[in-house]
Amino acid sequence: LGMPAVPTKLADRRVSRKIQVGKVAVGGDSQISVQSMTTTRTSDIGATLQQIAELTASGCDIVRVACPTQDDADALAVIAKKSQIPVIADIHFQPKYVFAAIDAGCAAVRVNPGNIKQFDDKVKEIAKAANETRTPIRIGVNAGSLDARLLKKYGKATPEALVESALWEASLFEEHGFGDIKISVKHNDPVVMVNAYRQLAAACDYPLHLGVTEAGPAFQGTIKSAVAFGALLSEGIGDTIRVSLSAPPAEEVKVGIQILESLNLKPRRLEIVSCPSCGRAQVDVYKLAEEVTAGLEGMEVPLRVAVMGCVVNGPGEAREADLGVASGNGKGQIFVKGEVIKTVPESKIVETLIEEAMKIAAQMEADGITS
Ligand code: SF4
């Protein structure tokens, strides 16, 4: 009997309806997408497009822009047209900006109909306009802006309160025959957030946008998001993700992509397998790993590069990788596909690894292997 196959994913994906956010499908069997949000004034078209270009380069699939003023609404048409990735307009309270965003050709709108219900027929009109243009809408329930009625009923933003709010918001559109919806129920506490999404996942078939809101500065926010998204994605829940960090948006994208790659939900690109170093290390592993990472940044092929500090685990790991180094005695043994191809002095390790990585990458590209 052979060894059991190593599972490549943790769970089957929850069955959700598929919606189309511009060129990016969300839900169903589509690839889980990574989103971020610009931090520029949307009315500053140049700065916003510049940031969107940076996000696109970092691998962002969908970008959201805030639309709090008429000037922002006026900028949407140019931004939606020039952006390489679908643009979602983020709107609170103002139905007129929702119509402006739909007219501007935004790929989707984030708006909570509960916010605009007081404008009576506006929800119906939005449903009609969105239906006609096939513009999906994200309903985004946040712990911090939970409906007063539900806060009173539940005392605080519990998972049940978040889910009830989301389903009620969705029903306001459903009444008008509109169902091109995706939903988020964000909370800053990963435990509440995970429970809310689990309940929501069981209660509807809308695609779900995962987010831990106000997750904090990069270090804390990365961990909170990774833990919460990891729990949900490992159960097959989640169709698009946004990591919220008090850091530049491209950082959010890097973290989001890494979370998906870690769970085999997105093909891995460059992966550096480096040891944590210990008392046996015969080389500065941190520096070496950093230099190799920097030298290979932007590589699009699924290359696994091992950087090991000594000869204990070094050769083993280096052999498992496409390329690797095991250091010792001021030298580095360079491995390619399990074979030692040369031994170089420590000062030449980085450049040799980069040189060999380029050769392998060129071969992979020639063979059509890209991630
Ligand atoms: Fe320590 Fe060597 Fe393992 Fe690195 S590879 S952690 S230096 S034993």
From TrEMBL:
<feature type="domain" description="IspG C-terminal">
    <location>
        <begin position="271"/>
        <end position="357"/>
    </location>
</feature>
<comment type="similarity">
    <text>Belongs to the IspG family.</text>
</comment>
<dbReference type="InterPro" id="IPR058579">
    <property type="entry name" value="IspG_C"/>
</dbReference>
<dbReference type="InterPro" id="IPR045854">
    <property type="entry name" value="NO2/SO3_Rdtase_4Fe4S_sf"/>
</dbReference>
<comment type="function">
    <text>Converts 2C-methyl-D-erythritol 2,4-cyclodiphosphate (ME-2,4cPP) into 1-hydroxy-2-methyl-2-(E)-butenyl 4-diphosphate.</text>
</comment>
<feature type="domain" description="IspG TIM-barrel">
    <location>
        <begin position="17"/>
        <end position="256"/>
    </location>
</feature>
<feature type="binding site">
    <location>
        <position position="278"/>
    </location>
    <ligand>
        <name>[4Fe-4S] cluster</name>
    </ligand>
</feature>
<keyword id="KW-0408">Iron</keyword>
<keyword id="KW-0414">Isoprene biosynthesis</keyword>
<keyword id="KW-0560">Oxidoreductase</keyword>
<dbReference type="InterPro" id="IPR004588">
    <property type="entry name" value="IspG_bac-typ"/>
</dbReference>
<dbReference type="Pfam" id="PF04551">
    <property type="entry name" value="GcpE"/>
</dbReference>
<keyword id="KW-0004">4Fe-4S</keyword>
<dbReference type="InterPro" id="IPR058578">
    <property type="entry name" value="IspG_TIM"/>
</dbReference>
<comment type="pathway">
    <text>Isoprenoid biosynthesis; isopentenyl diphosphate biosynthesis via DXP pathway; isopentenyl diphosphate from 1-deoxy-D-xylulose 5-phosphate: step 5/6.</text>
</comment>
<dbReference type="InterPro" id="IPR011005">
    <property type="entry name" value="Dihydropteroate_synth-like_sf"/>
</dbReference>
<feature type="binding site">
    <location>
        <position position="317"/>
    </location>
    <ligand>
        <name>[4Fe-4S] cluster</name>
    </ligand>
</feature>
<protein>
    <recommendedName>
        <fullName>4-hydroxy-3-methylbut-2-en-1-yl diphosphate synthase (flavodoxin)</fullName>
        <ecNumber>1.17.7.3</ecNumber>
    </recommendedName>
</protein>
<dbReference type="InterPro" id="IPR016425">
    <property type="entry name" value="IspG_bac"/>
</dbReference>
<feature type="binding site">
    <location>
        <position position="310"/>
    </location>
    <ligand>
        <name>[4Fe-4S] cluster</name>
    </ligand>
</feature>
<dbReference type="Pfam" id="PF26540">
    <property type="entry name" value="GcpE_C"/>
</dbReference>
<keyword id="KW-0479">Metal-binding</keyword>
<keyword id="KW-0411">Iron-sulfur</keyword>
<feature type="binding site">
    <location>
        <position position="275"/>
    </location>
    <ligand>
        <name>[4Fe-4S] cluster</name>
    </ligand>
</feature>
